[in-house]
Amino acid sequence: MQPELSFATPRKLPKARELRGRVVVLDIAFASETGGASFETVTLPFIEQLGGRLAAWVDHHDSKHHARFAADPRFILTTKAQHGACPELVTPEVVARAGEIDTIVCHNDFDGLVSAAKWIRGGEEPYKGADDDARAVDTRIGHPSATGVRFDRALRARYRDSGLFGLVVRHLASGLSDVSLWGPIDEAAAELAAVEQVTRELANRFERLGSDLVIADVTTRPGPYDKTLLLLIGQERAKIAAVLDGDTLSLAAAFDSGLNFLTLLGLSGGMPTRVSVPRKRLPDVLAALGIKGSALG
User: For the domain bounded by 195-288, which CATH number is listed?
Assistant: First the structure.
């Protein structure tokens, strides 16, 4: 019997009591101090409530709290610089050491879903080059294969669709053997074109602050947009791109930029080159970057 799947994010974890049996957690970063979440209020209680039912926790995001679990073999924790994507950490040895599991909790992006499928397959890639595709998608360095692009576009178009997440894992876990499953995946991917059009229009709102930062306020907009694409467009114009959306400020720089927003902003963990913080921290962010104030706020 295949394990049950639970899709999550670092700040929105499932209730431990509702997860069946022994649990493995894949590509879920330790929560950082954003949006009212933190390691102490979100991640640690989840770990404690799982207790002995936690079979393994495999993740590749930075966190100062990794050190707490250095002596616990269930935790395989690295930095983003060490491993650009999580699936490459899901090896046959890691899967075998964890033993039988009943539930997989994974991040609801391509990286996390490939990790879940690879675990189901005993540490074997769902298709040749899947690890490389996950790394290219997660770091935005290099180009994923045509197969990786199909999955990535579908997931970016429907980034809250748990039904699609399950379908993607099923297709990957089968080694892409059922070609009919491409139908709904490609249908979802086709929806991204309209979202991309809105995103490119929103990119006209970028304004430059200093020599290294462009920022856009998209709190009001004509429709759904792709924040990842918008930040990438911004990075074509400056070293750092920032997007204000409601009460959230998102910052991004190239994976190989050498920047570490976690250190600059005093955050305990996450992705060093992409973070989200409360909008009210904009003055602090600008000060940390050495940029004088802005009319945006």
Answer: 3.10.310.30
